[in-house]
């Protein structure tokens, strides 16, 4: 129990009693097996309640969104960034190289801008942890377990003030077995702000 | 020698839920496999009851002239049968590895219903890889060590 003014104990067993700031080395991990069972149950739960594959992905996306908004809060606190960076690329890099290691223990494999449109970016991962044990049957052929990660990304962007459309995780064929690509499409307001920032910088 | 012929998985009520042949061994008819699986299930249970010693878990190894049949029973009653060449070493370790893969790729797959037929693409691939790497496993682990799980072969 934490009394008034009591010092948070570094070695407190209970996770809610541990201090929020942590050094990188201290980031705790959970057993992958336990996580995989939980995620499997989450999908089964969503499957029982969804009428279609799209709805199933939307449900996962919603769960991910809730995770994402909270994670942005926690990570920005831990990173000790004093100022919020208003650039689109900054927040994407933050997701790519800070949030990803926190979630999956490694940075995402790729972050790039879509060729066709200025407001679209892609984050790819060649072996997304969430889908490692999941074989998708033919009747669910278009289902991508990565949609929960798409939701997390959307939640983080929204919490950071960069509302984006649900891009959805596109399962890419490609060489390394199963690479997952998350398409981020920013809303018009974000791009307008980005343009204004660039104009201001130019003078 | 170390040839692995086939793998069968039998659920706790005696139904065949997975079968795979390696080495292109003569395939049994599906109906035959199903029947033999349930016969093996009964034999296993009978052997457990016949045994004069207490706590007998059933048949673990059936040695024949042309093949060995190794059987591994999980705590929940799922049986894994491996048909191998006679005198293959380290087969229990391989069975342990396959059980591990079953726990990962089958039980953690939300599309799999427990006790039903296993149709998991990733499990098929993982089993194939494990069997292909079995000769390597023999090299890395000197015979005579009764280790159940072969670490570092994932």
UniProtKB/TrEMBL annotation, chain A:
InterPro entries registered for this protein in UniProt: NO_sig/Golgi_transp_ligand-bd (IPR024096), TRAPP-I_su5 (IPR016696), TRAPP_component (IPR007194)
Subcellular location: Endoplasmic reticulum; Golgi apparatus, cis-Golgi network
Membrane-crossing residue ranges in chain numbering: none
This protein's record includes keyword Methyltransferase: no
Family: Belongs to the TRAPP small subunits family. BET3 subfamily.
Record note on quaternary structure: Part of the multisubunit TRAPP (transport protein particle) complex.
Designated name of the protein: Trafficking protein particle complex subunit
Source species of the chain: Raphidocelis subcapitata
Automatic annotation (TrEMBL), chain B:
Keyword Transport carried by entry: yes
Chief place of localization: endoplasmic reticulum
Entry-linked SUPFAM superfamilies: SNARE-like
Keyword Transport: yes
Subunit record text: Part of the multisubunit transport protein particle (TRAPP) complex.
Keywords noted in UniProt: Endoplasmic reticulum, ER-Golgi transport, Golgi apparatus, Transport
Name of the protein in its database record: Trafficking protein particle complex subunit
């Amino acid at each position: 129990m934490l009394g008034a003014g009591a010092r948070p104990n570094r070695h407190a067993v209970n996770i809610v009693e541990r201090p929020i700031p942590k050094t990188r080395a201290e980031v705790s991990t959970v057993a992958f097996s336990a996580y995989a069972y939980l995620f499997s149950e989450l999908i089964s739960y969503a499957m029982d309640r969804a009428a279609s594959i799209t709805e199933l992905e939307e449900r996962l996306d919603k769960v991910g969104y809730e995770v994402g908004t909270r994670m942005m809060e926690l990570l920005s606190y831990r990173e000790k960034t004093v100022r919020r960076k208003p650039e689109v690329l900054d927040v994407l890099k933050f997701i790519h190289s800070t949030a990803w290691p926190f979630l999956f223990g490694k940075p995402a494999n790729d972050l790039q801008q879509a060729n066709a449109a200025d407001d679209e970016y892609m984050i790819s991962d060649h072996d997304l942890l969430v889908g490692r044990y999941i074989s998708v049957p033919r009747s669910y052929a278009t289902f991508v377990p990565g949609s929960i990660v798409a939701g997390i990304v959307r939640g983080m962007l929204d919490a950071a003030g960069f509302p984006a459309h649900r891009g959805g995780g596109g399962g890419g064929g490609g060489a390394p077995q199963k690479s997952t690509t998350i398409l981020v499409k920013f809303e018009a307001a974000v791009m307008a702000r980005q343009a204004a920032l660039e104009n201001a910088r130019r003078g | 020698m170390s040839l692995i012929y086939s793998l069968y998985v039998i659920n706790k009520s005696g139904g065949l839920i997975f079968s795979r042949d390696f080495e292109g061994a003569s395939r049994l008819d599906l109906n035959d496999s199903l029947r033999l699986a349930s016969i093996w299930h009964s034999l296993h249970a009978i052997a457990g009851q016949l045994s004069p010693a207490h706590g007998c878990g059933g048949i673990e190894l059936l040695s024949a002239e042309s093949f060995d049949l190794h059987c591994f029973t999980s705590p929940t009653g799922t049986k894994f049968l491996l048909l191998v060449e006679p005198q293959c070493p380290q087969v229990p370790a391989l069975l342990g590895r396959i059980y591990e893969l079953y726990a990962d790729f089958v039980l953690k797959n939300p599309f799999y219903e427990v006790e039903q037929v296993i149709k998991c693409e990733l499990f098929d691939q993982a089993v194939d890889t494990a069997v292909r790497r079995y000769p390597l496993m023999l090299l890395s682990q000197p015979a005579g060590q009764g280790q159940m799980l072969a670490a570092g072969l994932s």
